[in-house]
Amino acid sequence: MGAEVQFFAQTDVGRVREVNEDSYLVDRRLKLFIVCDGMGGHAAGEIASSLAVRVMREQLAKNRDLLEDFDTPSGSTTRKDVLSLLEFSVQKACSAVHAEGQRDQSKRGMGTTLSALLMLGSRGFIAHVGDSRIYLIRQGSVHQLTEDHSLINELLKRGRLTKEQIDKVQYKNAVTRAVGVYESVEVDTLDFDVLDGDQFMLCTDGLHGYLQDGEIPTIAADTKDEELSQKLIDLANGRGGKDNITVVVIRVPTADGADVRARDLHLKLEVLHRMPLFRYLTYQELVRVMNITDVRGFGPGQVVMGEGDGGDELYIVLTGRVRVHKGDATITTLGAGEHMGEMALIDSAPRSASVTAEEEANLLVVRRKDFFDLVRKDHSVAVKLLWSFLGVLAQRLRQTSRDLGEARDQLSLEEISSDMLTEFDRAELDRETSVDMKPIRRIGS
């Protein structure tokens, strides 16, 4: 991102509340954007949200050198380093809010949601706690990059509630995680590619609670960036305005060469989504999977894997074609979007066949260790992948059963044919013997 990002931020008390307990921050130099929705009596929510915003910004500013090093081609700072710094900053904010609540009895138990977006070069980093949200609007589609830590979302995920029943829930605004209620908190983090032309929206539940599915892209497409935040606030107020409303809209300018990166990114996400193993993952979960992949290039005739070799990698064809074979006998050829070796993600059995590039090919590679690290950290992804693996195994068992059944039927036909041929030969032998012996018996008589 060569040019400066544009941003437009607004907050509104709404039509019911007397105090605005939301806070937001925009730091142009750090390219840091935060929204917080405070909670607690006696204006404690307002204190919690503003304190959390300030402390997190201070922690990141203290480590500006590390952030700048990441954005340098020769820098040694990794994506994990940045994510760790983000999480550390949220924990410092959590500790500060909790300490303030312990110091003042009237503020005890106060807390706040926190959703932060940090942009470093062409990479975005998110830290998230609570039920405020960060949306990505890209090429006419909207993707929610954060997951609500709320009672409603937990009930929906567990199948205890349907979307039609949400209005009947008594404590539907209750959050399951908040900054400051306890001394520490579990923080969701995510990093992803930022493309030229991307648009982000950070907002509190005072807005997204009034938005309908699929409404954001239409509103964004029909509204100028500088007018979008006010239009969304007016929409929330027009539909009730029962809570404070905060919106931060960010636009990444478009530059030359953006189409190539966008095309490559779209291709990776598309081939991952087409795989049976990953088809049930959400957009942000697919991004987590994509983050543990590498792209490897193979020239014509170059061996990808050899029969009998050990292996711990899943291969997915991005471009080109590869040949799967045993010796010189070709089993099949695979093209873009097709894969091989997924069982290597769960065991170390030797490869059952060889794979060789037929032409210039780029393959997406997932290593077992990285796969298990992802599964251990994200329980939701783990459950989905477990069910997908069971589906893949069930499909293979059914196919194996069909193949065995067809082989058995073929064998039975061959046995029947053999038995029929034997009976036919015996009948012929008896007939010929009978014809030859009759003259002998007549002569003898």
What features would you describe in this structure?
This protein is α+β, with helices and mostly antiparallel strands and about 450 residues long. It has three domains: about 5-255, PPM-type phosphatase domain (Phosphatase 2c, domain 1, 4-Layer Sandwich); about 260-370, Sandwich (Jelly Rolls); about 380-445. Helices cover about 40% and strands about 25% of the residues. The chain has eleven helices and 19 strands. The protein has helices spanning about 45-60, 65-70, 80-105, 150-155, 205-210, 215-220, 225-240, 260-275, 285-290, 370-375, 380-445, and strands spanning about 5-10, 20-25, 30-40, 110, 115-120, 125-130, 135-140, 140-145, 190-195, 200-205, 245-250, 295-300, 305, 315-320, 320-325, 330-335, 340, 355, 360-365. Strands 2, 3, 4, 5, 6 and 9 form a six-stranded antiparallel beta sheet that branches. A five-stranded antiparallel beta sheet has the order 1-11-10-7-8. It has a four-stranded antiparallel beta sheet with strand order 12-19-14-17. Helix 1 runs antiparallel to helix 3 (about 80-105), helix 8 crosses helix 9 and helix 10 (about 370-375) packs across helix 11. The longest helix has about 70 residues, at about 380-445. The chain is elongated, with a radius of gyration of 32 Å.
Quaternary state, please? single chain
Mean pLDDT level: 88
Structural class: alpha+beta
Report the strand count.
Answer: 19
Task: Describe the SSE topology.
Elements: E1 6-12, E2 22-27, E3 32-39, H1 44-62, H2 64-70, H3 79-103, E4 111-112, E5 114-120, E6 123-129, E7 133-138, E8 141-144, H4 151-157, E9 188-193, E10 199-203, H5 205-208, H6 215-221, H7 225-238, E11 245-251, H8 258-274, H9 283-290, E12 293-298, E13 303-305, E14 313-319, E15 322-326, E16 329-334, E17 339-340, E18 354-357, E19 361-367, H10 368-377, H11 379-444
Antiparallel strand pairs: 1-11, 2-3, 3-4, 3-5, 5-6, 6-9, 7-8, 7-10, 10-11, 12-19, 13-18, 14-17, 14-19, 15-16, 15-18
Helix pairs in contact: 1-3, 8-9, 10-11
